[in-house]
Specification:
CATH class of the largest domain: Alpha Beta
Shape: elongated
CATH topology of the largest domain: Heat Shock Protein 90
Number of domains: 3
Oligomer: single chain
Strand order of the largest sheet: 2-1-3-4-5
CATH superfamily of the largest domain: Histidine kinase-like ATPase, C-terminal domain
Bound molecules: adenosine-5'-diphosphate, magnesium ion
Number of strands: 12
CATH architecture of the largest domain: 2-Layer Sandwich
Number of helices: 10
Radius of gyration: 31 Å
Largest sheet: 5 strands, parallel
Order of helices and strands: EHEHEHEHEHHEHEEHEEHHEE
Structural class: alpha/beta
Strand content: 15-25%
Distance between the termini: 43 Å
Low-confidence stretches: 382-386
Mean pLDDT: 87
Length: about 375
């Protein structure tokens, strides 16, 4: 009978060749088909660590120039994805406790080496379970954060649109009356210019209120079929002048991007907001890239959700870790008074959300930032489904 057996990849941190032989012998006896690598000291360990690919690491507790505990710490630091089992000649309970506490999966005395195969199998199982749990936990946290952000946006959005509505009425009143006076007085009047300033300020206020209303989704959307590549090209035509000369604009637009259902004005607003932030971050020099690509999520075996992904990347200053969770918050800005309103990303977030999509950010301090927007593509006709 032919059995196809997976090869067990073992990394041995062991200076004694006899022990290496013994351990490999035990594993083979236990039915494993083994491939292996050995490091006999610290230098060899570091050399082989960079492209280490092992199912399990068997480490001697004491090596000539390093301890097994140190090896564990190094593996953790380098995020080596393999369980570590300590194997040692001399044993006491304290060593066992220490090694498990520091992150070893198991601890075996050389005199009990006969049980090695079973312990290795178990260690690999435990490791896989541990990894799965960690993954589930990070996913849960990520989801929790998204939910929290969405709830926060919802409540602030309602508040903002409530205020914006009343505020808009006040502004309309002030604007109306100042314009009536402007009509009545002569241009030579010392008040003429001041009244004009009042009316300009009111108009700026009204523009801000309009942004708040978009954020609160109080301005009705007009959804149409849109080719996102064309929209980006057209918006760049508009924005060309706002981007400083030292900034190179790159368009990396894939050909076969499906159409989306979107409000053109609102999406343009998102692109403008992201572009302005990117140019602010670059301080006159760098590369601004727009990219489009397809993205799909397999929901079930026979159902795939298709999205369009739009990335806007800059080579600017980046966003510090402790700001990242705030950037979408209303009124969060790191810019000087008068330069930033802290609403650009809030609005981008809320528009993308209203389109059934999501927006994420990836930033490296001093290197640059990429915003990625995912929007649902118009699903192709299910013509040939029977
Ligand atoms: N591309 C970017 N690079 C670096 N920082 C950014 C970028 N985009 C946004 N930010 C940070 O997020 C903050 C909020 O952005 P935004 O909501 O558009 O408000 P504003 O631009 O008015 O400050 C900015 O003040 C800035 O600190
Ligand atoms: Mg902005």
């Amino acid at each position: 009978m032919i059995t196809t057996q997976k090869i067990l990849k073992v990394f041995l941190l062991e200076d004694n060749p006899d022990d290496v032989e013994l351990e490999l012998h035990e594993l083979r006896k236990g039915g494993f088909d083994v491939s292996f690598e050995v490091a006999r000291n610290r230098k060899e360990f570091f050399e082989k660590l960079s492209d280490l690919d092992a199912d399990v690491i068997l480490a001697d507790y004491v090596l000539p120039d390093m301890t097994g505990i140190e090896a564990i710490h190094i593996c953790q630091e380098k995020k080596i994805d393999a369980p570590i089992i300590f194997i040692t000649g001399m044993g006491n309970e304290q060593i066992a406790v220490d090694s498990l506490r520091e992150g070893a999966i198991d601890y075996i005395l050389k005199k009990h080496i006969v049980g090695l195969s079973a312990r290795v199998s178990r260690a690999i199982e435990i490791w896989a379970e541990r990894k799965a749990k960690e993954k589930a936990e990070t996913e849960r946290q990520k989801f929790q954060q998204l939910l929290f952000q969405a709830q926060k946006m919802e409540s602030v959005g309602r508040l903002a649109s409530g205020i914006a509505h009343d505020f808009n009425n006040l502004l309309t009143g002030i604007l109306g009356f100042s314009e009536l006076i402007l009509e009545d007085i002569s241009k030579d009047s010392p008040f003429y210019e001041r009244l004009q300033t009042i009316s300009t300020l009111c108009q700026r206020g009204a523009a801000l209120v309009k942004q708040l209303l978009i954020f609160g989704r109080k301005i009705p959307s007009e959804f149409k079929k849109i080719d996102i590549n064309t929209l980006i090209e057209e918006t760049m035509g508009l924005l060309y002048h706002a981007v400083k000369d030292g900034i190179e604009i790159r368009l990396n637009l894939q050909d076969d991007i499906p159409d989306i259902l979107a409000d053109m004005g609102q999406l343009t607003q998102v692109l403008i907001n992201l572009t302005l932030n990117a140019t602010d971050a670059m301080d006159g020099k760098g590369v601004l890239e727009f990219k489009t690509e397809k993205y799909s999520v397999a929901r079930h075996a026979d159902k795939t959700d298709r999205y369009v992904c739009i990335s806007v990347s800059d080579t600017g200053c980046g966003i510090p870790d402790n700001n990242i969770q705030n950037i979408f918050d209303p009124f969060f800005t790191t810019k000087e008074v008068g330069k930033g309103t802290g609403l650009g990303l809030t609005i981008a977030y809320s528009i993308v959300n209203a389109h059934g999509g999501w927006i994420i950010v990836d930033s490296k301090l001093g290197r640059g930032t990429t915003f990625k927007i995912y929007l649902p593509a118009i699903q192709p006709e299910l013509a040939d489904s029977t």
